[in-house]
Amino acid sequence: MYEATIGLIGIILGVAAGLSGALVVAQQRAKTARGGAEVILANARREAETIRKEADLQSKEEGLRRREAIDSETEVVRRGFREQDKRLEKRSDLLDQKLDLINKKERDFENVQRYLAEQQEELTRRNLEVKQTLTEQRDVLHRVSQLGPDEARALLLKRLDTEMRHEVGGVILKHEQTLRETCQQKAREVLATAIQRYAASHTAETTVSTVDIPSDDMKGRIIGREGRNIRAFEKATGVDVIVDDTPGIVIVTGFDNIRREIAKLSLEKLIMDGRIHPTRIEEIVKETQEEMEQHIRQLGQAAAQEANVPALHERLLDLLGRLKFRTSYSQNVLQHSIEVAYLTGLMAEEIGLDGALGRRCGLLHDIGKAADHEMEGGHPAIGAELTKRYGERPEVVHAALGHHDDLRPETPYTVLVAAADAVSASRPGARRETLDKYVRRLEDLEALACGFPGVEQAYAIQAGREIRVIADSHQLGDEAAAKLCRDIAKAVQQQLTYPGEVKVTVLRETRNVEFAR
After folding, report:
1. pLDDT by residue (tens digit) across 224-239?
2. Are residues 421 and 486 in the same domain?
3. Where are the extended beta strands (E) located within 36-101?
4. φ/ψ (deg, to 5) at 504
5. How far, in Å, are 8, 16, 77, 81, 82 from residue 86 at the CA level?
6. Distance between CA 123 and CA 127 in Å, rounded?
7. Is residue 90 part of a domain?
8. Of 273, 289, 305, which residue is a domain's last?
9. Are 283 and 227 part of one and the same domain?
10. C-alpha distances in Å from residue 105, one per residue of 111, 342, 489
11. Is the pTM for the entire model greater than 0.85?
C-alpha cells in the first residue's frame, strides 16, 4: 500500500514535471513567434513605405510630363494667336488704306457731280436764253412788216450792235487764248531760269553707319562679358550694333538717323576713352544726346543762313535741324527744303513778287516732317499748324498746307512752292532709283496704257508721275474717252507699284480741214 502510494506520487510528480516543461517550451515558442511577427511587420512597413514613395515619384513625374505637354500646347496656341494678331493688324492697315482711297474717290466724285450740276444749270439757262431770243426775233419779224423807215433803221442798228458784241466776244476769246499761251511760255522760261541758276548737289542717305576700331580686340570689349556692354549700349541708344568678322569696323544700324548718329558718336567716344562698361556707356550716351541737341540747333541756323531766311523762331530752327536726319525716297529733306527755298525765291523775283517771302515759304514747306511722329495728321497740316503757332505770315502757313495741291491755292507763293517742290523732287538724281528699275517702271506704265482698246500712243512723262494717252477719235467719243481715263487710272493703281501718285491724261482730238478755192 505504501509502495503504491509512493508510485502514484511519482507518477503525479512526473506528469507535473512534463506539464511544466511543455509549458516552458510553449512559452518559448510563443516568444519566438512574436519576434518573427514583429520582424515581418517591420519588413512589411518598409516595403509599403518604399512602394508609397515610388508611387508619389511616379505621380510627380506624370504630372510634370502632363504640365510640359500642356505648356507646349499653350505655346502653340499663343503663337497662333500672335500670328493671327499680326495678320489682323496688316489687314487693318490695308483696310485703312482702302478707306482713305475710297474717301478720296468719293471727294473726286462729288466734285465731278458738282461740276456736272453747274454745267447742267448753265445749259438750262442758255436754252432759256435761246428760246427767249427766238421768241423776241419772231415778235420782231411780226413787227417789221408794220414798221416805218425810222423804226426799221433803229431796229437794224440794234441788231448790228448785237452782232458787233458777239464779234468783240470772239476777239476777246482769241486774245485770252494768246495770253494763256504767252503765260505758259513765260512760266516755262521762269522755271528754266530758276533751275539753271540753282544746281544743288545730292547725296543719298543710308540706314547704316560704320565705326572704325583700332584692333579686333576692341570688339570683345565692346561686347563685354556675356554681352552686357553691347546690350547696355543698344538699350541706351535704341539702335542695333553688328559685330561680325569684318576687320577694323563695327556696324551701327537703325532707321532713326538721329539715334544712329548719337550711337555712332557715343561709340567713337567710348573707343577713344577705353573705359567700356554699362555705367560709362550711359554717361557717354547722355552727354552725346545733349551735344546732338546743340548740333541740331546749329544745323537749323546754318540752313536758315544759307537760304537767307532771318528771324526764325528757335523751335522752327530746331525742327529745321532735325530735317537733316530725315529722308524722303533717299532725298535729304533739309537739303531739299533749302533747294525749294532757292527755287521759290528765284521764281518769285522773276515774276515780280517778294523773293524773301518766297524763300521763307520754300524753306518751311516741309517743316511738318520733323514732327509727324509727335503730332497726328499729314506733314502739310502739321507744318501749317507749327508755322501758325510760331508766328509766321499767312502766306507761309498756306504754302506749308497746300504745296501738294490738297486745296485751292489762295496765294501765288503756294503755287511757286508746289512747282519748286516738284522740280526738286523730280530732277535726275534727287531720289535714288536704279536706272533699270526706272526704265522698267516707265515701260510698264506705257505698256499698260497701250493695252486698252482705242489707244493710239502713250507717253510716260515727269519721271513716271504722269501718263499721257492719245486716243483714237474715230473709235472713242468724249464719254468713252472719260471712261478710258478712269479705267487706266484704276488699272495703274491695282497693277503697278509707284511712289506718290500718277496723273492720267487722255487726249482726244478731232481735226477738220477744208480748202477755200
Report:
1. 888 888 888 888 888 8
2. no
3. none
4. -110, 120
5. 115, 103, 14, 9, 6
6. 6
7. no
8. 289
9. yes
10. 10, 35, 12
11. no
